[in-house]
């Protein structure tokens, strides 16, 4: 190859990449240009990414408002919020932890909005202050490996059997908002006995929800205690050899709150976004991803339509016990 | 005379701006630590068990990795200088692959290979092998050593090539026994390069985030870097603790760097190549060397790559290795133009190109400024320091410092949360490598070559484009390629500073383990490494093309 | 056809004065050698004439045209001074072929056919036509220096500057290139300025020699003048070994013989200390009064007393 050829190829390559960037940034949103508004809404979301992508592109098509999203765990979103304290960037937050939402609410950071769609919500998901919009929810339960000789766990205590020795993992409450809420609410109701027994049976704290699910999928662990339902169920629907059960004695159904920050400079668009979240279209999309729609009047297991035995939770009390229960949990699980 | 004033007037503001951007964040971090809370509270935090544990772990990991890389790189450097294997250029490149592999991918590969129901157990189901011993601090040191040995290997290889065989010949002639030659001649002379290697490996291990964040999390082995990242991004937040830990890490890394600078400044023995090292031709030696190298490569390259590639090809990851469980769909998914992974790919390469170009421009200015005799001494000295300093700053600390600087001190600029902060971080991080390349090239650029051009050619533009740029081209291409590769895989800075709505390759892969589709993350990892390899090969070819003459 | 005139030319770096205030005229169509010990400032003078170093004060005239004048603020860039230069380390551009190096400066000025013609001419002058497509690193040192020479004459300069141009070559090659350069300069009626620290080279190649020390001219004149009529002890010793008669009188070793050969000349007595075989002659170390003399002879001299004679017309007085 001559020098000219190499130069030409390099230039062509650079051009192709440049064109790709252009295309990637502008081409996939042609519909937005039909209703130009010049507004950009910034949304921080802890939702499952494919769902939030779908919701956002639907919203953009419908309203012509451009949306910038930041995907992260609840922890990452709150951290980003704190770092941006002096120069707030986000307009709307969608979190996976109700406790975190209540925490922000108690700090007075949220905007009150009388959304029309709220009327349709399941009563247990309604916020009397009209600040937290629980457009969807997820339950936690037990994910287990389907393999010969392994009993199917139906309640939390089943994971204390010797078949599950050294093979149970719990999502790290520091990475998973739903896990945090679960260990808090569970201890409120039943104390630490379960966790002590689990520790004796060799259970340990894993990573985020996806990571612990992965540990079971690849066989590193045999069960996850307190993992979110929709992730496991979609893996099951994809054909992975795992199972998921909602414990008979009851479990936490954790609302996933959306909220508008008071500091938002795009409140009108933000309100439109909340309305969109509560719309029938989005509620159907939520159901298709095996999450519990906020408008669902009965909470059922997507695998067999059995009713889920859900805890009744007072979230403001839960917010107060959070730190104490978290450190108790860490103490039980990390120290022998 | 007037010309000189103009130069100074241009250089001084640039130097000050660079100082603010490179040293400013560190000042912000340290003062935030010192003045952010009362001294007694600071001390309490410092001796808190969690801080001390991660500090202990970091130091243990650093010390262990020093031993590990030394044990691996010493025979390897000897093999690649003294045996027949040294003739194979491709082997040299292959040996560098572990360092080019992003560490978090490397570590994931190891986990998938040895975990219960991992690749080994699937391939040998009856062997009843458990690898508990591997999932321990020892395993972590092993993985880190297998990732970092190329750094040690490169330095030791140079040292061995430059080791004058005559020094040993003289000893042999004068009847000094081999043992004494080893202890009294070889070791004292090679101590300097070894110390340099150890400091470098220690600093790199201390700053490493990817391996502790994946493998370390698996075995609950917190180090300073992961503690900082967790304190800053997991709820409930421990911002103050993260800042303190960041300062601790910075102080250790800076001390190690200062020690290294001392070594570089005063070489006890000048090593110069005046003779090719003697070659051991015997078949036994070659066989032994080949065996060692093959074993090393299969551990350092084979294990992670086999495991990542198989993971990226599984239909059902719970089914494992089974007929009909293979698919290319994760790769095809990447080719869809609207897939998030493809977006991440485009974003990353776009960013990497922009950052590498800016990095190159700054590196040229810094190198030229630090070498210039015409600028005031304080400017050239400052530039020299600024060009080398980022080597001592662990990525996570730089990201944290920039966070503090831009979210608190410079909050009025409203720049926090924008791409600019991320770009500043990446440019700063990879500056030292480019500055090193370009400074060396500028030093080697014979002044008489430029002088002769000025005598024969009046047009400065033509001198620049036809003489200076072509001669500097290899160094420029090299530093561009290195910055490009480093930027495109940088993880922790992206995790902490990436603005909303953007994903890079590394953050995509990392998040795919946390929240997304792990198979797709693996597929993207394979594609990224392949692209990296192609870029290196292309650069290499471009360079050899330029330096080998065309025969008429 | 360029005579160079330096008037009150000075150069200092910060506090350090390299050239105090130099007045010097370099004649045209001749080879002038600028010679001096290392650090004497000869290369600085050459670089100032080339325009590579900007003088601190003074004036440089090429044929009465100022190329540099500190008071008037004139300073022509090197390439506008119509000169060429040959460097010690050749300074061939490593990424260009031989032809590329020779044609680089001309390419924007000449048409393609003129260029080919000119490059061919220049290369034929140094006998390198066959190597036109080679790269510098494929050539020997001597070949590289010939390319540098071709590059210099190709631009058809009036003045060529040589900066220690032959120092990197071995003695035999150096001698043959000295002859070649001398022929090229005179044949093309060029002016050449040759900086060197090698006195043999200066004497052999130059029509005019300027001896420099500490940035000042010690003596200027023809090679024979400098060799035979040095103005002071420094100049006398610089150009070759001396046999001292007293503090101000000396004679070169080649004019001293054994008294038996030249009975008519003045005589002196000495003690032979040693006799060293040097191939074509023996070099004898002889104590004469309180001085040590070198005397050559066809055969080895036995240690002991000896009588020497010398030609008085070659006595050097300073």
TrEMBL record, chain A:
Keywords: Signal. It comes from Lactiplantibacillus plajomi. PANTHER family: ABC TRANSPORTER SUBSTRATE-BINDING PROTEIN, THIAMINE-BINDING PERIPLASMIC PROTEIN-RELATED. The keyword Signal applies. This is Extracellular solute-binding protein.
From TrEMBL, chain B:
It is found in: Cell inner membrane; Cell membrane. InterPro entries: MetI-like, MetI-like_sf. It is a multi-pass membrane protein. Pfam families: BPD_transp_1. The keyword Zinc does not apply. The keyword Transmembrane helix applies. The chain crosses the membrane at residues 12-35, 55-78, 90-113, 133-156, 242-259, 280-306, 341-366, 386-409, 415-442, 463-485, 491-510, 522-543. Keywords: Cell inner membrane, Cell membrane, Membrane, Transmembrane, Transmembrane helix, Transport. Residues 55-260, 345-539 form the ABC transmembrane type-1 domain. Belongs to the binding-protein-dependent transport system permease family. PANTHER family: INNER MEMBRANE ABC TRANSPORTER PERMEASE PROTEIN YDCV. This is ABC transporter permease.
From TrEMBL, chain C:
It comes from the Bacteria. Residues 4-239 form the ABC transporter domain. It holds the Pfam family ABC_tran. This is ABC transporter ATP-binding protein. It comes from Lactiplantibacillus plajomi. PANTHER family: SPERMIDINE/PUTRESCINE IMPORT ATP-BINDING PROTEIN POTA (PTHR42781), THIAMINE IMPORT ATP-BINDING PROTEIN THIQ (PTHR42781:SF1). SMART domains: AAA (SM00382). The keyword Transport applies. InterPro entries: AAA+_ATPase, ABC_SmlMolc_Importer, ABC_transporter-like_ATP-bd, ABC_transporter-like_CS, ABC_transpr_FbpC, Mo/tungstate-bd_C_term_dom, P-loop_NTPase, Transp-assoc_OB_typ2. One of its GO terms (molecular function) is ATP binding. Keywords: ATP-binding, Cell inner membrane, Cell membrane, Ion transport, Iron, Iron transport, Membrane, Nucleotide-binding, Translocase, Transport.
């Amino acid at each position: 190859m001559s020098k000219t050829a190499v130069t030409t190829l390099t230039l062509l390559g650079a051009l192709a990449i440049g064109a790709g960037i252009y295309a990637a940034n502008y081409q996939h949103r042609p519909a937005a240009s039909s209703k130009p508004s010049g507004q950009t809404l910034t949304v921080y979301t802890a939702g499952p990414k494919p769902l939030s992508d779908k919701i956002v592109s639907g919203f953009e098509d419908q309203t012509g408002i451009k949306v910038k999203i930041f995907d992260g765990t609840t922890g990452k979103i709150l951290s980003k919020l704190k770092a941006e304290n002096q120069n707030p960037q986000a307009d709307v937050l969608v979190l996976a932890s109700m406790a975190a939402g209540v925490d922000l609410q108690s700090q007075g950071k949220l905007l009150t909005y009388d959304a029309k769609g709220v009327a349709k919500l399941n009563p247990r998901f309604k916020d009397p202050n009209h600040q937290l919009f629980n457009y969807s929810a997820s339950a936690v339960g037990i994910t287990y490996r389907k393999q010969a000789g392994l009993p199917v766990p139906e309640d939390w205590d089943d994971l204390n059997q010797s078949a599950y020795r050294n093979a149970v993992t719990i999502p790290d409450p520091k990475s998973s908002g739903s896990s945090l809420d679960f260990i808090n609410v569970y201890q409120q109701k039943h104390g630490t006995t379960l966790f002590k027994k689990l520790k004796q049976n060799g259970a340990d704290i894993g990573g985020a929800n996806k990571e612990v699910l992965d540990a079971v999928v690849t066989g590193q662990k045999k069960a996850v205690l307190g993992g979110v339902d929709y992730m496991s169920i979609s893996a099951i629907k994809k054909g992975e050899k795992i199972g998921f059960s909602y414990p008979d004695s009851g479990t936490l159904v954790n609302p996933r709150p959306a909220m508008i920050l008071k500091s938002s400079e795009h409140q009108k668009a933000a309100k439109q976004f909340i309305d969109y979240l509560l719309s029938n279209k989005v509620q159907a999309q939520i159901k298709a991803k095996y999450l519990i729609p906020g408008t669902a009047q009965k909470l059922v297991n997507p695998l067999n339509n059995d009713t889920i035995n859900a805890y009744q939770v007072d979230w403001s009390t839960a917010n107060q016990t959070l730190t104490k229960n978290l450190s108790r949990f860490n103490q039980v699980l990390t120290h022998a | 005379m007037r010309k000189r004033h103009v130069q100074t007037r241009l250089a001084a503001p640039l130097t000050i701006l660079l100082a603010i951007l490179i040293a400013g964040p560190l000042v912000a971090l340290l003062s935030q630590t010192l003045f952010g809370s009362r001294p007694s509270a600071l001390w309490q935090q410092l001796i808190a068990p969690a801080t001390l544990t991660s500090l202990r772990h970091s130091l243990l990991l650093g010390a262990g990795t020093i031993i590990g890389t030394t044990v691996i790189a010493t025979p390897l450097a000897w093999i690649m200088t003294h045996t027949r294997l040294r003739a194979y250029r491709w082997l040299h490149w292959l040996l560098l692959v572990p360092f080019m592999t992003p560490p978090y991918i490397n570590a994931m590969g190891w986990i998938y290979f040895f975990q219960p129901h991992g690749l080994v157990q699937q391939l040998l189901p009856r062997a009843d092998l458990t690898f508990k011993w591997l999932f321990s601090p020892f395993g972590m040191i092993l993985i880190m050593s297998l990732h970092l040995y190329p750094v040690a290997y490169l330095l030791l290889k140079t040292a061995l090539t430059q080791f004058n065989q005559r020094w040993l010949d003289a000893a042999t002639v004068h009847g000094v026994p081999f043992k004494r030659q080893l202890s009294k001649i070889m070791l004292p002379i090679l101590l300097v390069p070894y110390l340099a290697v150890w400091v470098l490996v220690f600093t790199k291990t201390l700053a490493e985030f990817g391996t502790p964040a994946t493998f370390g999390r698996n075995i609950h082995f917190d180090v300073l870097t992961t503690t900082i990242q967790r304190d800053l991004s997991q709820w409930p937040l421990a911002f103050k603790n993260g800042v303190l830990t960041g300062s601790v890490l910075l102080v250790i890394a800076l001390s190690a760097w200062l020690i290294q600078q001392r070594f570089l400044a005063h070489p006890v023995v000048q090593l110069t190549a005046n003779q090719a090292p003697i070659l051991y031709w015997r078949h036994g030696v070659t066989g032994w060397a080949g065996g060692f190298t093959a074993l090393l490569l299969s551990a350092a390259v084979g294990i992670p790559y086999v495991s990542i590639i198989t993971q990226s090809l599984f239909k059902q990851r719970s089914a494992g290795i089974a007929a009909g469980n293979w698919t290319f769909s994760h790769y095809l998914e990447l080719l869809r133009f609207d897939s998030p992974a493809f977006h991440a790919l485009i974003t990353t390469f776009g960013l990497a190109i922009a950052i590498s170009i800016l990095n190159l421009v700054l590196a040229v200015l810094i190198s030229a400024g630090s070498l210039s005799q015409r600028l005031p001494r304080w400017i050239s000295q400052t530039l020299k320091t600024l060009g080398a300093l980022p080597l001592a700053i662990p990525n996570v600390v730089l990201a944290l410092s920039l966070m503090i600087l831009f979210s608190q001190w410079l909050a009025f600029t409203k720049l926090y949360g924008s791409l600019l902060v991320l770009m500043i971080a990446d440019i700063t991080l990879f500056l030292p490598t480019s500055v090193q390349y370009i400074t060396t090239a500028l030093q080697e650029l014979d002044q008489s070559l430029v002088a002769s051009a000025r005598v024969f050619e009046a047009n400065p533009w033509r001198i620049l484009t036809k003489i200076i740029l072509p001669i500097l081209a290899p160094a420029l291409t090299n530093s561009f390629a290195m910055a490009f590769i480093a930027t495109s895989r940088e993880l922790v800075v992206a995790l902490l500073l990436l603005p909303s709505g953007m994903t890079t390759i590394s953050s995509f892969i990392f998040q795919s383990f946390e929240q997304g589709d792990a198979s797709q993350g693996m597929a993207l990892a394979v594609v990224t490494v392949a692209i990296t390899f192609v870029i290196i090969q292309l650069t290499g070819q471009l360079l050899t093309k330029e330096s080998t003459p065309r025969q008429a | 056809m360029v005579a160079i005139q330096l008037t009150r030319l000075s150069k200092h770096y910060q506090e350090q004065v390299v050239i105090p205030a130099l007045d010097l005229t370099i004649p045209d169509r001749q080879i002038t050698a600028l010679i001096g010990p290392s650090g004497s400032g000869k290369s600085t003078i050459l670089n100032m004439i080339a325009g590579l170093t900007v003088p601190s004060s003074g004036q440089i005239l090429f044929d009465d045209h100022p190329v540099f004048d500190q008071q008037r603020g004139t300073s022509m860039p090197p390439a506008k001074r119509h000169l060429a230069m040959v460097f010690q380390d050749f300074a061939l551009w490593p990424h260009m072929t031989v032809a590329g190096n020779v044609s680089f400066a001309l390419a924007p000025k000449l048409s393609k056919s003129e260029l080919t013609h000119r490059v061919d001419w220049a290369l034929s002058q140094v006998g390198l036509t066959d190597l036109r497509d080679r790269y510098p690193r494929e050539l020997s040192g001597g070949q590289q220096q010939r390319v540098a020479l071709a590059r210099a004459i190709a631009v058809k300069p009036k003045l060529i500057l040589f900066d220690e141009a032959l120092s990197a070559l071995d003695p035999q090659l150096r001698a043959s290139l000295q002859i070649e350069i001398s022929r090229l300069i005179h044949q093309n009626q060029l002016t050449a300025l040759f900086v060197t620290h090698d006195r043999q080279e200066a004497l052999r190649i130059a029509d005019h020699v300027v001896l420099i020390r500490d940035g000042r001219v010690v003596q200027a004149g023809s090679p024979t003048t400098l060799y035979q009529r040095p103005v002071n002890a420094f100049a006398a010793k610089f150009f070759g070994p001396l046999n001292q008669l007293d503090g101000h009188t000396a004679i070169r070793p080649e004019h001293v013989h054994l008294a038996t050969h030249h009975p008519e000349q003045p005589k002196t007595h000495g003690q032979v200390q040693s006799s060293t075989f040097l191939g074509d002659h023996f070099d004898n170390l002889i104590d004469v009064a309180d001085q040590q003399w070198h005397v050559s002879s066809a055969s080895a001299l036995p240690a002991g007393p000896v009588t020497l004679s010398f030609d008085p017309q070659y006595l050097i007085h300073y």
